Amino acid sequence: MNNKFDFQEEHVINEINKRKAKLVLLQLPEGIKQEAVRLANYFESKTNAEVVVSGETCWGGCDLALDEAKNLGADLIIHYGHAPFIKKVDFPILYIEMKDNTPIDNLLNKSKKSLEKFNSLGLVCSVQHMHQLEQAKEFFEKLGKKVIIPEKKGYSHYDGHVVGCEYNSLKLISKGVDAFVVLGNEFHSLGAALSVRNPVYLLDTYNQEIVDMTKLRDKVIKQRFATIEKVKNSKKIGIIVGLKPGQKFGSFKIIKKKFEDSGKEVVIITMAEVNKDKLVNFHGIMAFVELACPRIAVEDYGKYDQALVTFREALVAIGELKWEDLIEHGFL
User: Fold this and answer.
1) What average pLDDT does the segment 33-38 reach?
2) Which of 13, 97, 205, 266 is spaced 20 to 30 A from 27 at the CA atom?
3) Cα dihedral sign, 38-42-43-45
4) Residue 2 falls within a domain, yes or no?
5) Residue 18 CB burial class (10 angstroms; 0-12, 13-18, ≥19)
6) What average pLDDT score do residues 239-258 get?
7) Residue 2: pLDDT band by 50, 70, 90 thresholds?
8) Which residues pair with 271 in a beta bridge?
């Protein structure tokens, strides 16, 4: 059993029984699918429901297994690891956010030296650490620092909550703080570093480290510049429209016309999951714009032989935005 996270088994059992669910689809993030057998068997032993586990990838609250559940005839999705993301969903979903039980006292003490030069901090976290955010705020305030937890914006579900594609709350307070502190993991802290110009520090609860994100941010920015240049020089462009319910960023019609006006051949492609094996089948297309999750292009840079850019980066490639706009206002 994984003791790092709180799986809230008894709460799930009570909800299944209360809702009188007969067929439940259990959706787990990639890192905890090893718990699938234990959870499914336990829930079945304590309820009258049959539990089916989704074997598809699950990358966030944007990635709900709605079609799977409907095809199965399920009457409830139990979605682990994320807060609600999509505003309107036409299916019963039980979100289990999975609190991280790892104490952060030592990590906070480790951060003193790295953060001593800053007088004011913006403080955010992934959903697994929402219950520890106030502890971190009080710690830094006792050190004499001004601490701001930004109000929720866009896809964020709580004040101080960040998800992979949503950093507007940080942008709104960026001029009022010297640096940002992200409690959680590299994924969310890199997203923050690519969204604001302030220094960003990760309080890494997994490796118990304090990480200045500047070096990684600068590396990724160089990669993004090179990728955008490849798109500019490509004669054929594939525009990928994401099929997952919460992964739709930007209009393919706008981008398609702009590329065609610049003399490029364009094809619109639908994909539920973007991967190398799918892209390689489109021979002759060496540049793609993906309108699904913007982190696919950024995070998976080294996985593809072709150039892969986001909607905002495509706007730079066609001259609608300047490179300086991305640097100033963020890549996400």
Assistant:
1) 96
2) 205
3) positive
4) no
5) exposed
6) 87
7) low
8) 242
Rounded to whole angstroms, what are the CA distances from 250 to 162, 216, 222, 285, 301? 20, 26, 23, 21, 20
User: Element (H or E) spanning 148, and its range?
Assistant: strand 146-148
Do β-strands 287-290 and 236-242 pair in parallel, antiparallel, or remain unpaired? Answer: parallel
Split into its structural domains, the chain has a count of 3
CA atoms within 13 Å, Cβ hemisphere of 188 = 26
User: How far is the C-alpha of 289 from the C-alpha of 256, rounded, in Å?
Assistant: 10
Average pLDDT, the chain: 95
Residue 124 sits in the same domain as residue 196: yes
Cβ-based neighbours of 150, under 8 Å, separated by 6 or more: 122, 124, 159, 160, 169, 170, 172, 173
Cα–Cα distances (Å) from 68 to 72, 211, 273, in that order, read 6, 39, 14
pLDDT tens for 75-125 read 999 999 999 998 889 999 999 999 999 999 999 999 999 999 999 999 999
Q: Which of 166, 190, 212 is the last residue of a domain?
A: 212
Neighbours of 90 (CB within 10 A): 7
Structure confidence at residue 246 (pLDDT)? 81
Q: What pLDDT is stored for residue 244 in this prediction? A: 86
